[in-house]
Amino acid sequence: MKTAGLSLEQAPPIELPLGLFLAAPLFLIAAGLLLAAQPEVLLASRWTPAALAATHLIAVGFLGQVMCGALLQILPVLAGAPVPAVRVVGTLVPPLLSGGAGLLAWGFLGAGAEVLMWGGLLSATGFLVFLGPAAHALVRAPAVGLPDTVWALRLAGSALAVTVALGLVLVAALLGGVRLGDFPAWVDTHLAWGLLGWVGLLVLGVAYQLVPMFHLTPEYPAALRRWLAPMVAGALLLGTVLTGSGAAEVAAVVFLAGALGLAVFALVTLGLLHRRERARLDATLLHWVAAMLCLAGSALAAAVGAPGLAIGVLGLLGVGVGLTAGMLLKIVPFLGWFHLQHRQIALRRFDLRLPHMRALLPETWARVQLATHLIALAALLLALAEPRIGWIAGVLLGLSALTLEVLLVVAALRYRRFAGRLAPAG
């Protein structure tokens, strides 16, 4: 592992990102149960209440919490920019996003306009509580040494703000408070900012550093690092202007151009992983490979006019869930190992032998989680043609998320056990 250039001493207390990481898979389990309970309804169209509920359980409850938790750690360690009031942020964001995701899903499933409104407000508040301090950190982040990563993260944060704003506008439109000329087009714009902007740009910024660090690959090409994130952000801005001007069809083409840019990133990443120094295939590496194939596949599917549900499954589950789960399998044991090492040095307790990363999170079970995720993804793609088997995909998705949750809890408990042994000698 390449750790040169990391500001590890600025890392926040481990319980802050862990709180977000441990809560997130519960919402993926809920989405799987919803799919298992209503497969034919959920897979009938992306506009059904069940589909909207499952989408927001994954997007807000799972992806939102994991990515906020990751940035609490990444900003100080990779970018040298600690998040102000990090304990307040790390304490408030989990209940706000959890409550918001739950109420949004409940509201879409028929609980009523007031529940949907509160779900939107809680989700937006959770993201804003995170975004304010994170934006302050990103503005102050020294771009020297990591300019491409810092700018990609800045653009990702901006994309999250736009995604949240558009989401609130859409909720207001559903409740009759705002009139939108072309509601489906604005939903697509909200989706583009969320998937291509928030998720896509964040993946770019993180990958530029973590892929070479964790997998010992060559660096990403300088031209790609310099131009891809601004190009995707520019496509999102232009597409939004076109949507507002009533040119939704042209906006869709512009959004597709941004997606194709991310597909190029996926192919470059696959090439770098093929050239890695270490031949070993661990679960995180295989998650990266699968997610990059899904990213390229989703862009190709959009280019040939495939159904929106197929594109959404590849993008949201194949890339968003798969890549996020893979990174958790690496980040959580790394955080535990690092904090134990730091604590041992600070207390000078060299009489205690600390566990390595694989002892904190067993690779065998990480591969089980990967396999379950891939089978669930394949089953869900098949269920698009035969919705009656969708319940199988739902059960498998829930099992994959449950396995991830158990692995994270085990890693956290093992860290806590060893941290408890690291008391001052004598």
Describe the structure.
The chain is an all-alpha fold and 426 residues long. The protein has one domain (8-421): Cytochrome c oxidase-like, subunit I domain (Cytochrome C Oxidase, Chain A), CATH 1.20.210.10. The chain contains 14 helices and no strands. The protein has helices at 15-37, 39-42, 49-77, 86-111, 113-140, 147-174, 183-215, 222-244, 248-274, 283-303, 308-347, 357-360, 363-383, 390-421. α11 runs parallel beside α14 (390-421). The chain starts with 14 loop residues before the first helix and ends in a 5-residue tail after the last helix. The mean pLDDT is 89.
Per DSSP, the total helix count is 14
Any idea of the CATH class? Answer: Mainly Alpha
Strand content: under 5%
| Second CATH tier, the architecture | Up-down Bundle
> What radius of gyration results from the CA coordinates?
21 Å
The portion of residues assigned to helices is over 70%
| Span of the ends, CA to CA | 34 Å
Q: Please give the oligomerization state of what you see.
A: single chain
